[in-house]
Amino acid sequence: MIAPFDLSGKTALVTGANTGIGQAIAVALSQAGADLAVVGRSAPTETLALIEANGRKAVNISADLSSIAPVARVVEEANSALGRIDILVNNAGIIRRNDAVDFTEEDWDAVIDTNLKTLFFLSQAVAKDMIARGSGKIINIASMLTFQGGIRVPSYTASKSGVGGLTKAMANEWAAKGINVNAIAPGYIETNNTAALQADGNRNRQIVDRIPAGRWGKAEDIGGAAVFLASSAADYVNGHILAVDGGWLAR
Ligand code: NAP
Asked: How many CB atoms neighbour CB 73 within 10 A?
């Protein structure tokens, strides 16, 4: 292994990469040498520019991932722009907050559909080509709520606990076919997703006090873990959920 984290000549598809963790992962993968397809419903103008500034190819595929309707088209467009998908990062996700006793079916379905159902069927579509080639990397974005219950976010907890289970289920079926399926579980990261928590003085203080590293994570803190799991350095890592959490789970 001369450069075990080198992704030169590789192609990656990242969902929800216009901002936050998805943007940081896309940029980190491009720094490691990969060409990128970024998939989402908002224009990823800044992300495309950052990837191109690293000298890599960046294509935008516009799709609303709240249903699986666009999945086949997304894979077709990525294949025709990049030739194939070596690395899939299932990052797009939403959160809805309400007391469990008042939680609506709409808030349940919206979160489960985006965070769990689309993640599975996009993985399935991409895995078909990866199995035919005998190689590929799938990285799912899990959460601390893959391990814990959370407060006032029941559908999010169900979806991210499901992501942990699915990561292992897909790894079990596809590891022998050359596909590494793993997940990253970010801790508390400063993005739009956590804006409500960051703005809530009490909760914010409780959260920081409980993090051994003593600070919120930044989206860029997740990039290196994604490069590792996307690279040949992780060829014997299967079904793992890698916490990048400043020590939150160790507490
Ligand atoms: P974010 O800034 O809100 O980013 C979420 C991304 O998902 C955005 O690009 C968003 O696009 C996209 N997305 C949401 N619904 C979509 C849809 N229907 N179709 C296409 N794209 C959609 O939040 P983030 O914190 O970076 O979240 C990224 C992932 O990390 C999520 O899976 C989240 O659950 C997970 N996570 C975050 C934290 C944290 O502390 N921030 C912790 C653990 C896990 P739009 O901009 O168009 O909405």
From this structure: 12
pLDDT in tens, 27-72: 999 999 999 999 999 999 999 999 999 999 999 999 999 999 999 9
Q: How confident is the model at residue 181 (pLDDT cuts 50, 70, 90)?
A: very high
CATH number of the structural domain spanning residue 96: 3.40.50.720
Could you give the number of structural domains in the chain? 1
The residue to mutate among 112, 191, 249, having the most atoms of ligand 1 within 8 angstroms of its beta carbon, is: 191
CA of 2 to the centre of ligand 1 (A): 34
- Give the strands of the sheet with 241-244, arranged side by side: 58-62, 35-40, 11-15, 87-90, 136-141, 179-186, 241-244
Structural domain span for residue 231: 11-246
Q: How far is the CA of 194 from the centre of ligand 1 (A)?
A: 10
Statement: the pTM of the whole predicted model exceeds 0.85:
yes
